[in-house]
Design goal:
Length: 149
Amino acid sequence: MTNNKYTSRDKNRHKANTQLNSIDRAHKGQSYRNAPCHDIFTCKNCNHIVSPEGAATTHRNHCPKCLVSVHLDIIPGDRASLCGAMMDPISVWVRKNGEWAILHRCLSCGEITSNRIAADDNPTLLMSIAVKPLALPPFPLGKLEYAEI
């Protein structure tokens, strides 16, 4: 049994969307699964012009100013998603190798994806997202009781 992080459900969705999307693919461009993406785009959220320069990555997938992404992929780089809605940055996490990644949630379908940060991402916004659970805990801090050990 191979260790593959994509489930058969993901692969079936990818296959179905790729078939449905074959005509539509012309306006979305090529697949970037195995090729670098050097596209320049305008952020749908803040209208910032986003280019790959300064990102220190060949796969720019979110705005460095507001960190918003667009739901384009089913499997990273395939550009096969039919959704196309904006994706809000909801959290950050640290991968095994110490690299930070941003979790995005699609505003339309609710799918959550992980995208590595880029060198020119807004550090203040990254930190505010990282500390949000501490600033807004899911329980009232004033009513915490200390447990006896």
